[in-house]
Amino acid sequence: MTTNTTGLILSQIAQTSTEAAAIASAKLRGYGRKNDADQAAVDAMRRVFQTAPFCGKVVIGEGEIDEAPMLYIGEELGAGGLRADIAVDPLEGTKLCASDAPNAMTVVALALEGGLLHAPDMYMDKLAIGPGYPAGLIDLDLSPTENVMRLAKAKGVPVSAIRACLLDRPRHAHIIEELRSAGAGIRLIPDGDVAGVFWTTEFARSGVDIYFGSGGAPEGVLAAAAIRCAGGQMQARLMPENEQEEARARAMGRDVHAKLTLDDMVPGDVVFAASGVTHGSMFEGVHFEHGHAHVETLVWDSFSKRKSRVRSIWPEL
Fold this sequence. Notes:
Elements: H1 3-26, H2 34-51, E1 54-60, E2 76-77, E3 82-92, H3 94-98, E4 105-112, E5 123-129, H4 144-155, E6 163-167, H5 173-182, E7 185-189, H6 193-199, H7 203-206, E8 210-216, H8 217-230, E9 233-239, H9 243-251, E10 260-261, H10 262-265, E11 271-276, E12 287-289, E13 292-301, E14 306-315
Parallel strand pairs: 1-3, 6-7, 6-8
Antiparallel strand pairs: 1-2, 3-4, 4-11, 5-8, 5-9, 9-10, 11-13, 12-13, 13-14
Helix pairs in contact: 1-2, 4-5, 6-8
């Protein structure tokens, strides 16, 4: 099987799965039932994966097998074919969907077996920028001020023209204070740090230059897939909060003190797909009209260097 064929197969699976999940969860926008919306997305994705032409294994998912019926780590899906790793966030921004707030989306990354870091469910410190900059421009071991100064210089703009994105959490107060003291602008988001990293890949559309801060490690690997496809830069480090989390990471072969590069998280080619659930900076949300669902999806395929922004029409499920 050629590289292009592999990318095409995985792209079709990824697109279909995120669109089905987006439509299913969009029916529950604004009702305050985040768990129901998440479950609807999970069920829709699972149906697609179960009949897809691959042998997929979830390496980034909703937890372990005893936490089913979510798409759990280790779950095997597919109707047969090439062996692939699945990283999935069936509904990125469950609270956003529940309140019909902007930027909820469905996300999948697919790679050949062994192509995605098996990330434990714990916090991860993240730093990311989009494409077009010299290699090694940012570094997780540098201060936020130094990173935005480097980025501003490379971009040829003052620091005041740089816009950073962070989750709006008390743990980020010191980063926010430092960035504002340096003169950078900040976009604080209530949820959805896959989206926050993803926004750096399309500055012209999102207005976000750089992402800082800690969030879920599984979401970090999903975000790294988007950065890999876009040609951006990302570094990360696991942040276990107790001995149990540290032991679990070590059992997976992870060094909790190591600075993870993009090559550590997504070492090879990957397909990344995301579909809009609610309207936002990067996508139109699903809308229903005359018995059909309209959904916008971005599909990136690093196997063949394809990037597609697709507007699909489905019979309303």
